Each structure stands twice: as structure tokens, then as C-alpha cells.
Amino acid sequence: MFIAHLPAGYLLTRGIVRKRETIWRPALAVGLIFSLAPDLDLFYFYLVDGRRTPHHDYWTHAPLFWLAAAALTVLALSLAGKRQYLIFVGIAFANVLLHLFLDSIAADIRWLYPFSDIRFNLVEIPARYQPWYLNFILHWTFAAEMAICVAAVWAWGSEKV
Ligand SMILES: [Zn+2]
């Protein structure tokens, strides 16, 4: 997925927390950050790894990593008596799972890693065009991305302040 992670994160977070709730602004910030968080590995991919490993193979695209991080954060917040912040862990984790689900539509995600290397994706994108990204932009799945973007813009515009 190229362009719809952020708008999808907006829609998901908006579905979890209403704008009139006092936690709306921090919830939205957490939701948007974690809707993109798995793709922070692109910095490593381009700047350190020299594009040798597909970035979907890094631990940042492993659901069990995020599950463990969320569980540890829940434990730490609970032990510290800060249970009022648990909603933000839920928002972050939900947005990461949405990111990985959306990636799974047209890219390989190892949902069971490190227990299995089986890759899951909904559709295969044939490599017909150069440069490589045209294969994704000219595929029907990109229409789904555009629909998510339009829905997010519509939702944003329909909100009452
Ligand atoms: Zn990703």
C-alpha cells in the first residue's frame, strides 16, 4: 500500500474515539503515527541495508513484534498505575494491525513470523511496467487506496468542530 495508510489510520482512529471526546487530539496523533510506524523501516531499507532485504521482511512488519510491544507497554502502564493511557496502546496496536492488513492486500506479510515464514497476500501484482511502482499504481488495488483516501477526506470534511 502506498498512499492510504495515513487516511486509513484517520478513519480507524475516528471510529475508536469521537472528536468531541477530550482525548481526541492525542488519540489522533497516536493513531496517525502508528498507522505509518511499520514503514519507518524504509529509512533502514534505503540508508543502511542498501535495499538488500524486502522491507516487509523486517521485524517492523511482524505482527508478533507489535503484539509483544503492546503487551509490555500494557504491563508497564498497569504496574505504574497509569491505566488511563491503555486506550492509546489499543489505538496504536489497532493502527499497526490495520497497516499490516492493508499491506497484505498486495504485498507479502509474514503474519506468523518468527514461528513461520509463510507469506500472506490477497493478490499478486504482476511485474509488467518499469519503474516498479507503476505495477502497483496501474493495478485495481490502487483504486481501493484511492477510495480510502476519498472516504477519509469526506469524513474529515463532514466533521463538526
Ligand atoms: Zn508497510
From TrEMBL:
One of its GO terms (molecular function) is hydrolase activity. Pfam families: YdjM. The chain crosses the membrane at residues 27-46, 58-79, 86-113, 133-156. Keywords: Hydrolase, Membrane, Transmembrane, Transmembrane helix. This is Metal-dependent hydrolase.
